[in-house]
Amino acid sequence: MAQVPWRARAEVALGGVQLRAMERAIALAAGVRAGELDGVAYAARAGSGGLPLVGVHGFGGDKETWLMMAALVPRRRGAVLVDLPGHGRSADVPEGRASIRHHAEAVVRVLDRVGVERAVICGNSMGGGVALRLAASWPSRVAGLVLVASIGRDVHEGGARTWIDGDNPLIPRYEDVDRFMELALERPPPVGRAVIRHIITRRARRADALHRLFRGFVLAGGEAGVPRDLGGITAPALVIHGEQDRIIDKRTAEDLAAALPHAELVVMRGVGHAPQLEAPRHTARLVEAFAARLER
Fold it and tell me: In a designed cystine with 194, which of 15, 16, 137, 252 is the match (CB 3.0 to 4.6 A)?
């Protein structure tokens, strides 16, 4: 493990304190309460009307990546935010239980627990692949899809396979925290540098587990992975992509929008790989307008 300068360690520690306080405040504003089901952590609020939103985070992330957006959409709309197996506060899982399908099954179990029959599924990065699997295998549960900087349908055959045994840009080392920040984020979220450094350093500490989870996610294709043929997905889809995304190329979003029968594409300028964090108000407005159209 690389030696971390004391100033950087102090900044990381400060970021952890700030993050916990911020998460509590935003969770209160969003009106969500924490829960747990068979090792899967989640946060949810009951809605009083309209289609609920379900937030599915990306690889190495957690449900808190959707907190700001959940706080910015109307409180009457229910929300369910899930920590996928092996992520966030959910229990660790072996490689064989880290496939896209296993993640989707975990989301379905949580929806059953909180009594949500049909929802708008919002997936970021790997979470977009989970959303697509939900729409293909559990279509009655999906009223609409919001794919935010989503992985593509070729992820199991594409360049991500080369990251399994080599340098994986999604799993930073301690000495690469600043480089990872520049890679993932074009526009820093409104949370402060110390918080961002804390989150990425925490990711670096989990490198071994994340390498295992990444193998499980990328190597399990077919019915266990992201569906290759999207023509049978009838749910309307909103595809959102940051023009400055340096992790997933904009061409992936263009392919998804073309392959899904009922999809629209929105490209956000000045935004990188996490639009819901970098531009939460804009993203929330797009998602709310999309959900409202589905209800007409």
Answer: 15
